């Protein structure tokens, strides 16, 4: 976590969900974008393809996940990838860092609600 | 509020605090940076000079605040500005929008905590 930043970065938030799916053995490159877009629809958040794929690429590059090709049957040959958890110790440390940043971010936003909408600040 | 964005923008968060100070009649251009930096120090957030002054400039440009010069006494002539609330109806509408975005942002972050750290999601 960088020092003195505002709130949690979108990239960290997306990675967290991807690691969760990888832990469950169901992180597929082609599906994760649509899954995340559907999952956050009710909260008005639609992650872009670019953000999702960059996050996935960083997870791979940093060793948090590994990937294996899966040959999909059908008229056209198409290579799918399944992503699996890589270095578990490293993943755990990363998740701990992200948790601290989530807690900090929620505290900042809740302070703003209290200060600006409860009519109590001096 | 733009559609499908992640969480609240730093600029909106800063403007909210500046409007609050302007409403109290104590928003001074030279002091607000230091005040905000001190106020969020405990939560690891140190807004930069650039972000703070851009936010202030946008508030002025959009008519949310107006400014008046104050001549500061001292050895050197220096012009200070005090910023006052401008169009109150517009400010109220803006604050309502920001409140909705704060609520939405907190809900997103809390969902991530629940999904990824409570060991309950499928």
What attributes does this structure have?
homodimer, 122 residues, alpha+beta, three-stranded antiparallel sheet
Can you tell me about this structure?
- Chains A, B: Homodimer.
- Chains A, B: It comes from Ureibacillus suwonensis.
- Chains A, B: This is Replication termination protein.
- The structure is a homodimer of 122-residue chains.
- By secondary structure, chain A is an alpha+beta fold.
- Chain A has four helices and three strands.
- Chain A has helices spanning 10-23, 29-39, 49-61, 88-117; strands at residues 27-28, 65-72, 78-85.
- The first copy, chain A, has a three-stranded antiparallel β-sheet with strand order 1-3-2.
- In chain A, α1 (10-23) packs across α3 (49-61).
- The two termini of chain A are 33 Å apart.
**N- and C-termini, Cα separation of chain A:** 33 Å
Summarize the amount of helix of chain A as a percent range: 55-70%
Mean pLDDT of chain A, nearest integer? 91
Residue fraction in strands of chain A: 5-15%
Shape, per Cα inertia axes of chain A: elongated
Helical stretch count of chain A?
4
Give a quick precis of the structure.
Chains A, B: InterPro entries: RTP, WH-like_DNA-bd_sf, WH_DNA-bd_sf. Chain A has 122 residues and is α+β, with helices and mostly antiparallel strands.
Topology at a glance:
Two copies of one chain form a homodimer.
Chain A: H1 10-23, E1 27-28, H2 29-39, H3 49-61, E2 65-72, E3 78-85, H4 88-117
Antiparallel strand pairs in A: 1-3, 2-3
Helix pairs in contact in A: 1-3
């Amino acid at each position: 976590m960088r020092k003195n930043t505002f709130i949690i970065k979108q990239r960290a938030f997306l990675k967290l969900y991807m690691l969760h799916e990888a832990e469950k053995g169901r992180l597929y490159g082609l599906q994760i974008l649509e899954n995340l877009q559907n999952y956050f629809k009710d909260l008005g958040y639609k992650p872009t393809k670019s953000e999702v794929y960059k996050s996935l690429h960083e997870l791979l590059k940093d060793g948090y996940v590994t990937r294996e090709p899966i040959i999909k049957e059908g008229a056209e040959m198409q290579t799918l990838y399944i992503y699996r958890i890589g270095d578990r110790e490293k993943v755990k440390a990363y998740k701990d860092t992200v948790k601290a940043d989530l807690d900090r971010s929620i505290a900042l936003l809740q302070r703003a609600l209290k200060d600006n909408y409860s009519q109590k600040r001096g």
